[in-house]
């Protein structure tokens, strides 16, 4: 249960209810971060707009590279909700999620491509405190992907750092998005919000 309970649909204002309806339509359930963030309606709206815009703008990197780097951040920071949701997204993209169990061995595992190794190493360097990114690392990424894609990768890794740290601090835990062989989505409800 999150440290701050989510807002139930019956207690939500019109804007939040519309946001919940859209989330249920897309995902079958209201993600718990939405229901908790709904405690602050203006931030809820800002976050929703930002997530949609960032998703639409992020089209320069191969999906597997971006999603793997974002997953790595969630895994490194211990955000069970982000790991759960990220695994589901990768399943729906048709990516091999079994290899995620061995992501700590990405540098030597044949399950990861050169591009994926570069992106995961970058995610690691961006997620450490202090940030340990080197000029050489960025130059290798630029040679591999180009400037726009490196900016996209950097932005997405930074965004996941924010999500994972926020959700971890608020005590938001996995919701079962990735459970089951067929990646079934949970029943359409707000578990913690009592909707």
Automatic annotation (TrEMBL):
Pfam families: CMD. This is Carboxymuconolactone decarboxylase family protein. Residues 53-124 form the Carboxymuconolactone decarboxylase-like domain. InterPro entries: AhpD-like, CMD-like. Coiled coil: none annotated. Signal peptide: none annotated.
């Amino acid at each position: 249960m999150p440290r701050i309970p989510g807002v139930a649909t019956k207690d939500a204002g019109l804007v939040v209810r519309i946001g919940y309806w859209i989330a249920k339509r897309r995902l079958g359930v209201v993600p718990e971060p939405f229901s908790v963030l709904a405690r602050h309606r203006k931030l809820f709206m800002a976050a929703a707009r930002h997530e949609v815009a960032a998703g639409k703008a992020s089209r320069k990197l191969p999906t597997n590279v971006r999603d793997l780097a974002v997953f790595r951040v969630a895994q490194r920071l211990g955000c069970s909700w982000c790991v759960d949701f990220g695994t589901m997204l990768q399943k729906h993209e048709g990516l091999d999620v079994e290899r995620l169990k061995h992501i700590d061995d990405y540098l030597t595992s044949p399950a990861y491509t050169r591009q994926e190794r570069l992106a995961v190493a970058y995610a690691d360097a961006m997620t450490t405190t202090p940030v340990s990114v080197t000029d050489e690392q960025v130059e290798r990424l630029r040679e591999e992907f180009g400037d726009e894609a490196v900016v996209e990768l950097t932005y997405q890794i930074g965004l996941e750092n924010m999500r994972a740290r926020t959700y971890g601090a608020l005590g938001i835990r996995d919701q079962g998005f990735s459970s089951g062989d067929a990646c079934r989505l949970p029943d359409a409800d707000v578990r913690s919000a009592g909707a």
